[in-house]
Amino acid sequence: MEISAIRLEAFKEIGNIGSGHAATSLSKLLQARIDMSVPKVWLVPLEKLNEALGEYDTVQVALYLKVEGDAPGKAIFVLPTESARVIAQKLLALPERPDIFEDEMAQSALQEVGNILVSSFVIALSKFSGVFLQPSVPAMAIDMVGAMIDGVLLEEGMIDDDVLIIDTKLSGVKEVEGKFFFIPNKGSLDKLLGVFGI
Amino acid sequence: MSKMIVVGMADYKVGRAPDKLMTAGLGSCIGICVYDPSTQIGGMAHIMLPSSLESLQGNPAKYADTCLAMMLEEMLKLGVMRSRLKAKMAGGSQMFSFGNKAPLLKIGERNAQAVEQELKKVGVPLLVYDVGGSFGRTITFDIQSGDLHVRTINHGEKVI
Question: Which residues form the CheC-like protein domain (chain A) (predicted)?
Fold first, then answer.
């Protein structure tokens, strides 16, 4: 798969708009200033995915939503377990950081964060492009990051040799970081960018 | 000295004892280890999908059938005897579930079945496997001993 520089640039802009909205939602939720930037838009071959993700077997929290509508794809928010613990603690006003492997309240709070974050990204994207997109029910896992990504990539039972990734970086609250990936299905990219005549 | 050979997604590698083969973060993918104890040559494949027949496109190392065939060919060139080959596998889990909705494709389960069938087709006995569940696995295969070490995050470690 080939993708032109102008398309990558356009996709980065789309990513900026989506993540701007997502950051606003998260700021409201946590009552703290959160910034999200789009450092990279990548077309990554499968065997190089680990360079985009870091070590495959580090434990992270992943929140996954399927994006349905006219330009379907997958949206995943991945964050380190410590960041997830900080977010859950803030949301639930707990005296200590919860054990996210055991604490079901914390898990459900995180799932909700993921839902809001990813949905606001998708809705912004849909409004901006005029292409109908709808986020689905979120799913969460806490596991090796490589295993979660392959679970997401393979859900539909087929996959290209390359994955297009909008990589966003979350910052603002101390000790909270996260990455957001939007992976369009085959054909979705043409639809999204076609709207802008690119 | 023993070195660790890392196998990426949709990839396979062949090595000799005392080298070890490793692949990290298997979700619905499967790690297949095939080895010949007498020549001490072994291979590991990290496959993603059951069959190339459904959608033969792109990298053949993605699929159970084509990847296994490629790996066996390379191993035979290095001098393994087909009749002495043995196999082990791990992976094939279902990482995400959406509430009560059953997943449409159960790709992990289908991957495990496909590998089992392909091994049968080429006549390599599957000695042992660790598949299924809803968690990731990192596997290390010791070509010398034939031990397959399976590590998980919250579901323990084992050697099969």
Answer: 12-41, 105-139
